[in-house]
């Protein structure tokens, strides 16, 4: 195993023990310590099994993935301002700690899902030298399909419904964007998940869904051990909980992984096609402004309780 894999394993063990003992900063920031150490360890396991990995073979992609991870998760935080399904408690009162903490935590979403999906896929495919579940598959020349309008219509309705009737349609947050955005991948040169499924190529779909479900279990397990954590208020299912999450909610992690994969490759490909450096810089500035606006909205509407200053 590479040194960064051993470092990840050691950090995971140390942070778990120290968080259990209530030692700071591990107790408050345990989620961040656990996820970043897990990403290092899981990526090294992918490298061992496949000969390359996100950190070892696609390092140039990683910074953009972190930035888009924060932006993509904040899209769901924007939904939550309406559906109010989760809230944060115990987050630091100091904004100079809290906002970087948001960014560090939200930046783990895509690397966590993608590395886990790649690791799961390695057990289906062994060491074959082919693409990863997290990577896009280009559309073959002459095979680009027109968007499937029924899927787009259904996706638009399901994406909008939680904003209009949040009490009854809140689960559609985890399905509507898949139907709405997946067909649009073909427009930016990426084979859609639906097209791959229809052709019998289902490896990526299942790997991502299993990876999302596995990450969901780890998210909720490690969240339960942190003093700074999220809690849920979900209509109709609030009494059936595993850790903080109502048990039926775990079904949402599989399509959430698909949403993350679709959004990431749609945004990444669109940014690559943007007309020149100035256009890309303007897009990045707009995304940064959105992130800061959502950080402020989270503070105002989603944080239920601020912690006292951390005793280091």
- Profile the largest sheet: 3 strands, mixed
- What is the arithmetic mean of pLDDT? 90
Strand order of the largest sheet: 2-1-5
The tally of strands reads 5
Q: Summarize the amount of helix as a percent range.
A: 55-70%
Q: How would you sum up this structure, described in words?
A:
The protein has 312 residues and is mostly helical. Helices cover 63% and strands 6% of the residues. The protein has 13 helices and 5 strands. It has helices at residues 3-20, 30-50, 54-57, 62-83, 95-106, 109-125, 149-164, 166-169, 176-181, 193-198, 203-224, 253-273, 276-302; strands at 86-92, 229-232, 241-242, 245-246, 303-307. The strands form 2 sheets. It has a 3-stranded mixed sheet with strand order 2-1-5. Strands 3-4 form a two-stranded antiparallel ribbon. A hairpin with a 2-residue loop joins β3 and β4 (245-246). α4 packs across α5 (95-106) and α11 packs across α12 (253-273). The chain is globular, with a radius of gyration of 19 Å. It starts with a helix and ends in a 5-residue tail after the last strand. 39% of the residues are buried. The model has no long low-confidence stretch (mean pLDDT 90).
Short description:
The chain is mainly alpha-helical.
Describe the secondary-structure layout:
Layout: H1 3-20, H2 30-50, H3 54-57, H4 62-83, E1 86-92, H5 95-106, H6 109-125, H7 149-164, H8 166-169, H9 176-181, H10 193-198, H11 203-224, E2 229-232, E3 241-242, E4 245-246, H12 253-273, H13 276-302, E5 303-307
Parallel strand pairs: 1-5
Antiparallel strand pairs: 1-2, 3-4
């Amino acid at each position: 195993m590479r040194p960064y894999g051993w470092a990840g394993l050691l950090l995971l063990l140390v942070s778990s023990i120290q968080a259990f003992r209530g030692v700071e900063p591990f107790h408050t920031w345990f989620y961040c310590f656990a996820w970043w150490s897990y990403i290092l360890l899981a990526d090294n396991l992918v490298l061992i099994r496949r000969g390359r990995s996100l950190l070892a073979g696609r390092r140039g992609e990683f910074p953009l993935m972190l930035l888009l991870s924060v932006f993509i998760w904040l899209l769901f935080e924007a939904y939550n301002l309406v559906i109010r399904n989760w809230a944060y408690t115990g987050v630091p009162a100091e904004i100079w700690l809290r906002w970087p903490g948001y960014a560090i935590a939200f930046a783990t979403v895509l690397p966590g899902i993608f590395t886990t999906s790649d690791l799961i896929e390695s057990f289906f495919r062994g060491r074959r030298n082919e693409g990863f579940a997290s990577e896009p598959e280009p559309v073959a020349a002459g095979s680009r399909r027109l968007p499937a309008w029924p899927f787009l219509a259904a996706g638009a309705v399901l994406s909008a419904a939680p904003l209009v009737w949040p009490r009854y349609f809140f689960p559609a947050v985890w399905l509507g964007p898949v139907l709405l955005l997946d067909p649009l991948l073909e427009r930016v040169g990426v084979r859609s998940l639906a097209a791959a499924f229809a052709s019998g190529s289902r490896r990526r779909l299942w790997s991502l869904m299993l990876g999302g479900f596995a990450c969901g279990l780890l998210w909720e397990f490690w969240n339960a051990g942190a003093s700074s954590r999220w809690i849920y208020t979900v209509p109709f299912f609030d009494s059936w909980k595993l850790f903080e999450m109502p048990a039926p909610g775990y079904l949402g992690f599989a399509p959430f992984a698909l949403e993350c994969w679709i959004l990431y490759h749609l945004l990444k490909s669109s940014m690559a096609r943007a007309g020149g450096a100035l256009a890309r810089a303007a897009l990045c500035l707009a995304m940064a402004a959105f992130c800061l606006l959502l950080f402020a909205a989270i503070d105002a509407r989603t944080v239920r309780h601020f912690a006292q200053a951390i005793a280091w």
